[in-house]
Design brief:
There is one protein chain. The chain has 291 residues and is an alpha/beta fold. It folds into 2 domains: 254 residues, P-loop containing nucleotide triphosphate hydrolases (Rossmann fold, 3-Layer(aba) Sandwich); 29 residues. The protein has 12 helices and 8 strands. Strands 3-4-2-5-1-6-7-8 form an 8-stranded mixed sheet, with helices on both faces. Helix 1 crosses helix 11. The mean pLDDT is 90. It binds adenosine-5'-diphosphate and magnesium ion.
Length: 291
Amino acid sequence: MTSAAAKHIAVYGKGGIGKSTTTSNISAALAEAGHRVIQIGCDPKSDSTTILRGGNELPTVLDTLREHAKVKLEDISTVGYRGVLCIEAGGPVPGVGCAGRGITAAVELLQELRLFEEYRPDYVLYDVLGDVVCGGFAVPIRDGLAQRAYVVSSSDFMAIFAANNLFKAVAKYAPSGGARLGGVIANGLIAPYARSLVDDFVARTGTRVVGYVPRSLVVSQSELYGKTVIEASPDCDQAAVYRALAREIVENEEVAIPRPLSGPELKAWAREWGDRVFAEELGMVGQMAVI
Ligand code: ADP
Ligand code: MG
């Protein structure tokens, strides 16, 4: 189903956590390093690839399928920064239909068009909404389409909750040919306790953090310019962070079948952290006062 050489990678995470920003910067960094890249937005929001294509118009696969009997690759893709091929699966008409089914329809069309055989990418990145509770969103990791799944998370409980849900889906499908977990991309950690909390969560679930992406004003500024950080500020520290993350993903052989926490375990773990948060913060203040 997938072209022999291509590495297919799915990036999950709760809405607004930074999936599209992070994925687009990884795509840009991979393209900059000379790889052929396709990024497929699998979020009904359809804004996954915006900063790779300077905000240029791109009809979604689902809209195009609704309007035309015959769809060509040119109708549903556009070439973005450094040749990254951008595709947006799109979503159902608001209030009607199932968003997850949109991903299935989009993936089927791309296979029908023999996209991977014709375009011969080195990397295909799927940017997927985190609600894997719906089967449609599990499509990229379920049927051998993607070999690796990553999850973007902050230290917020809802982000961790979504990550734990992804772990459940990976643990369920990995034994029957589904994707393995590459790891967690920790995005925008600010509070001193945040890193300890995320580190503890990955330790408890048998996973690991593949990169810490700091919260940065350059990300906001680049977004306002309609660009990735790699394109807008190639020499800044944040661009180096995204390049390191892309390298880590290229070289990452260390994959895992995660051990998700059960509902009660996650609740107990969160409570424990509720008790620790102030202690961790005060500990930092204490250390700083000594310095
Ligand atoms: P998602 O795709 O998960 O819904 P986005 O990638 O669209 O989330 O990010 C949501 C918002 O957060 C965007 O405005 C984006 O610029 C901002 N953002 C994401 N990561 C960072 C970061 N590391 N530093 C600053 N802003 C960020
Ligand atoms: Mg997004």
